Amino acid sequence: MATFQEQKAPSNSTDALFRAWVKSVIDGLIAVGLVQTADTGQINTTTVLAPTAGNQNRGYAIFQLNDTLQSTSPYFFKFEFGSGTGGANTLWMGVTVGHSTNGSGTLSISTGSVTVHTPYGTGGMNAPSTSPFDMNYSGSSGRFVMTLFRGSSGPLIIGFERSHDNSGADTDEYGTLFISSGSNGGSNAIQYTLLKSGSATPVTPGIDTIISMNTSLGSSVFNNKRGLSPLFPFVGKFGNPMIGMVGLKSGDWVTDAETFTATLYGSSRTFMVISLATALTSPRPTKFAMRWD
């Protein structure tokens, strides 16, 4: 397991600021175990120019998992960077998961079409800032989770991990993308689960949230302990829970960046509390914590 942290400003207002946050995403993913592919045409963070108007896509970076299952159940990721329709300084990202790449930036899945997810919506992050905020990355060769601009008015969580067996070991059945963008005009909290390459219907039916506890039921505190909920991918059934993130009740977990340990699949894991700009609404967990080990 690996972690990586630095600070960058959520701003496209200058070439330097735009390059800095894009480079952080690339550096962070590499630092926690992913591999950037050799696809041609990928964004050059030394020379790329910041958007000069709204709705400009300035380039992409392609990554793949680096575990032993990648040879039989491959997953590739395309991250696109630019501005939303709200103007040049509204940060925009596109996130795509696929089974393969054509070597020049186009991902595909074995059956059907890929989905481009826009965590901040088409409008982009609606509260950019030139102040730096934490960029947190955690992962291994078969999973990753990152929180961009933690502490700002538009923090963004993106994570992916493989399916797990009853012991928590990775399996090649499916992989799940998780996105939460808090308030900033984005998707709030979604899952997108892609079955392994070769499946007749690889994309599971969409739902707008990871299945978790109903946090409208009041405090999770019991016996002087605060509750948390694993996140369960939905694949026509509830899959074994994810290990990269857990759901929390906002009122019980009030300190941003607080770390704690919890036992999942019989092993102790360290998590970091991520405070969203606006707490999500039921039936979602109203706050999340990302793995931080």
What report would you give on this structure?
This protein is mainly beta and 293 residues long. It is built from 1 helix and 18 strands. It has one helix spanning 15-31; strands spanning 2-8, 35-36, 57-64, 76-83, 91-98, 100-101, 107-108, 116-117, 133-140, 143-150, 156-164, 170-180, 189-195, 229-230, 245-248, 259-264, 267-274, 287-291. The strands form 4 sheets. It has a 6-stranded antiparallel β-sheet, covered by helices on one side.
Query: What portion of residues is helical?
Result: under 10%
Largest sheet: 6 strands, antiparallel
The unreliable regions are 205-211
Based on Cα principal axes, name the global outline: globular
Strand residues, percent: 35-45%
| Cα-atom radius of gyration | 18 Å
The SS-based structural class is: mainly beta
Number of DSSP-assigned strands: 18
How many helices in DSSP terms? 1
Strands in their spatial order, largest beta sheet: 1-9-10-11-12-13
| Separation of the first and last Cα atoms | 6 Å
Give helix and strand order, one letter per element, not per position: EHEEEEEEEEEEEEEEEEE
On the 0-100 scale, what is the average pLDDT? 87
Itemize the secondary structure elements and their pairings.
Layout: E1 2-8, H1 15-31, E2 35-36, E3 57-64, E4 76-83, E5 91-98, E6 100-101, E7 107-108, E8 116-117, E9 133-140, E10 143-150, E11 156-164, E12 170-180, E13 189-195, E14 229-230, E15 245-248, E16 259-264, E17 267-274, E18 287-291
Antiparallel strand pairs: 1-9, 2-3, 3-4, 4-5, 5-8, 6-7, 9-10, 10-11, 11-12, 12-13, 14-15, 15-18, 16-17, 17-18
